[in-house]
Amino acid sequence: MADYSNDLQLPGHVRVYALGLMQSIIGRPIKSAFSEQQLNVIPWKGWDELHDIGERRVTSPSQGVSEYPDTSNGFTSTLVALRSSQIMAPICPSLEITPDDLLDIGTAVSCFSKLCGAADTDSYLKALVAVLAEWEGLFVVGKDGKNSAEVTDAGDDWENDDWNEGWESFQEVEPLNTENKGSSLSLHPLHVCWSEQIQRQVALSLFGDVLPFLDLSLSKPNGILLYEDNAWSMCEMVLGRDFLWAFKMMMLLPYGDLQLNCLDAFEEKLKQEGMTDRIGKDLDVLILVLYSGVISTIISRSLYDNSFSYICYLVGYFSRQCQETCSLRLAHEETSSSEDENVNL
Question: Which domain of life is it from (predicted)?
Fold first, then answer.
């Protein structure tokens, strides 16, 4: 099967199927965001033992070196390279991503930089996101669980009833040190690629596409997509274009000083322009301020009076939305109940 899949005369989709089948047989299938076809193959439980025996046999002095020294890894890199080429085919038909481009993170970054340099449309950038999703199977999968306990064990102690009426003690609490929020997290192995991807999206003013990536990365212990220096540069770039999107993006990054810098810019903007219709109903801001912990800084420092008033307005707006939704639901239930009674009569 290895010889068959290495036949360059075969169509790409046939090679992908053959390689995917081999990955399933050895019990190491690579999930693909591109291929919807799922192989229902029972893994060969004795593969690892047989593979180890085979490696010892072919690497013995009497037999020389194996023709496939790292078979499973070779299958994986070839499969991912072929899938990546298929993803890019509608955008760049002549482009070919080879296993040599994916030997390690360094070669992958070099390859992606070339791809990203030519990205000038939304469809091109979406294809690059799909490519990065494929590459996760090589460089990320299997590492996410490494520090999962370190992140999740910090959970909420809801059984502790020591709230002290809440508000009075809340004002006495020191502002949250958001700089330590990412202490148990680490950079994504492909963070250089993601940094270039996000820079291109910002250059094309596709701010709404960036936020979901940053949001999803929060669930992974090794998911931070931007190095702090790059995040500062990104903040300055986005602030010059759209202060609201800059604020949202920075609230999703674990860099306390950067968040406070962005909060200062946000406060100044509110002081100059007041609360506009655009930001008056943006509940994403309320969610992100609560998540990041910046809310304690806004409440405890008079320096952020405008931001505090804005957050209070958002809380009021959210409460009104909830009340209206509940009223509509109750009215609907009463109407349904009346109709049922009339039917019974």
Answer: Eukaryota
Beta carbons of 287 and 293 less than 8 angstroms apart: no
Residue ranges per structural domain of the chain: 259-336
In tens, the pLDDT along 269-278 reads 999 988 888 8
Cα-atom radius of gyration of the chain, to the nearest Å?
A: 27
Cα-flanking dihedrals φ and ψ of residue 224, to 5°? -65, 125
* Residue 195 neighbours by CB under 8 Å, 6+ apart: 225, 226, 227, 230
Query: In Å, how far are 57, 77, 128, 338, 343 from 35, measured between CA atoms?
Result: 36, 16, 15, 51, 52
Q: How far is CA 105 from CA 110, 214, 289, 330, in A?
A: 9, 21, 34, 56
Contact (CB, 8 A) for 84 and 111: no
| Cα 123 to the center of its chain, rounded Å | 19
Burial 273-307 (b: 16+ CB within 10 A, else e): eeeeeebeeeeebbebbeebbbbbbbbbeeebebb
Residues 119/128, Cβ–Cβ less than 8 Å: yes
